Amino acid sequence: MLRFIPLLALLAACESAPDREQQQVAAAEKTVLASHDSLMARMDRLYELRQQLARVPATDSVAAGRHRRALLGAESGMMFWMHHYRRPADTVAAPRRRAYYAAQQQRIDSVRRLFQRSQDSARQLLGATPAAPSTPAP
C-alpha cells in the first residue's frame, strides 16, 4: 500500500497542472476584457471632447482639428481592436491561448495610451482657449 502513495501524489499533481493552466488562461482573458470594458466606459468622453473642440473659436481651429483627429484615431483604434479580437477556441492549447491574450493585452494597452494622450491634449487645448459663446450676443 505504501508503494502507491507516491503514485497517487503524482497523479494528483498531474491533474492540477491543467487546472492551473486553465485558471491562468481565464485570468488573462478576464484582464483583457476588463481593459476593453474600462475603455468602452470612456467612449462617451471622447465624443464629448470632439463636440467641444468643434466649438473652439476660429483662431484655434487648426489645433482643434488636429486634436479632434487624434480623438477619432483613438476611437478608430478601439473599433479596430474590437473587430479583430477573436476568443480562441477551448480546443487550442493553453500556452497558445495565453500568448494570444498577452498579445491582445499589449494591443488594448496601446489603445488605452491613445485614449489617454488624445483626451489629455484635447483637455489642455480646451482649458487654454476661451469658451465659445453658446448664444449670439445682442
Written account of the structure:
- There is one protein chain.
- This protein is elongated.
- The model is unreliable at 131-138 (pLDDT under 50).
- The N and C termini lie far apart (99 Å).
- It has 4 helices and no strands.
- With 138 residues, it is mainly α.
- 78% of the residues lie in helices and 0% in strands.
- The relative contact order is 0.15.
- It has one domain.
Short description:
By secondary structure, this protein is mainly α.
Approximately how much helix is present in the residues?
Answer: over 70%
Largest sheet: none
Q: So how many helices?
A: 4
The SS-based structural class is mainly alpha
SSE arrangement, N to C: HHHH
Structure summary, number of beta strands? 0
**Overall number of structural domains:** 1
Low-confidence stretches: 131-138
How many whole angstroms does the radius of gyration measure?
24 Å
Oligomer: single chain
Summary keywords:
138 residues; mainly alpha; 4 helices; 78% helix; disordered C terminus
Please outline the helices and strands.
Blueprint: H1 4-40, H2 43-54, H3 61-84, H4 94-128
